[in-house]
Amino acid sequence: MPKARRGAGRAPARGAAAGKSRSRAGPGGPPARLWAPWRMEFVLAPKEPGCIFCRFPAEEGEANDRRNLVVHRSARSFTVLNRYPYSSGHVMVIPRRHTGCLEDLTAEEFQDLHEELRLAARLLREVYRPDGMNLGMNLGRIAGAGIADHLHYHVVPRWAGDTNFMPVLAETRVLVEHLHAAWEKIQRAFRERSAT
């Protein structure tokens, strides 16, 4: 008579197939769950009419910049902290022109946007000293753009050991810095760079 396997005779855990682990997905099994409850605030928040990326740079003054998390303006672009960041120092670089189509930008707008992007990346390296960065633009809702009608680059500082690319894909991160502290630090770096 064959020996009984350890745990034999027990019913599989509810929702789990026999031989499958509930804590991680195996080949052909259900995907593992990743929880990001902080995103619910964004999902359930009432959506203001109009485009926030058009409104933010139009509302000038330090109090408005702090509230809107704007850290810098150039002639045709601006940089703002992401209110729902994937890591500390996560900013977005945005053209002032309201368009969701990259090729709609004039040569001057395109140049200004990319100078602002280069400056944002340089200052984030100086301020946060990351080991690397994710930098990209999602064009269209199907591609993952949360605000599809207004172009914006994401610049996300990354550190060795901060897991992998999953925080950007799965929207799951532990943040160690308050947004207002990040705003002060990054805004000061832009201001000091402009003064030199």
Structural class: alpha+beta
Spans of at least 5 consecutive residues whose pLDDT stays below 50 are 4-24
What is the string of SSEs from the N terminus onward? HHHEEEHEEHH
Mean pLDDT rating: 80
Largest sheet: 5 strands, antiparallel
What's the level 1 CATH class? Alpha Beta
Task: Report the principal-axis shape.
Answer: globular
Strand order of the largest sheet: 1-2-3-5-4
The CATH superfamily turns out to be HIT-like
Description:
With 196 residues, the protein is an alpha+beta fold. The protein has a single domain (50-195), classed as HIT family, subunit A, CATH 3.30.428.10. Helix content is 33%, strand content 13%. It is built from 6 helices and 5 strands. It has helices spanning 39-44, 52-58, 62-68, 107-128, 166-170, 179-195; strands at residues 70-73, 77-81, 91-95, 132-137, 153-158. It has a 5-stranded antiparallel beta sheet with strand order 1-2-3-5-4, sandwiched between helices. Strand 1 (70-73) and strand 2 form a beta hairpin. Helix 4 (107-128) packs across helix 6 (179-195). The longest helix has 22 residues, at 107-128. It is globular. The termini are far apart. Residues 4-24 have low confidence and may be disordered.
What is the secondary structure topology, with strand pairs?
Layout: H1 39-44, H2 52-58, H3 62-68, E1 70-73, E2 77-81, E3 91-95, H4 107-128, E4 132-137, E5 153-158, H5 166-170, H6 179-195
Antiparallel strand pairs: 1-2, 2-3, 3-5, 4-5
Helix pairs in contact: 4-6
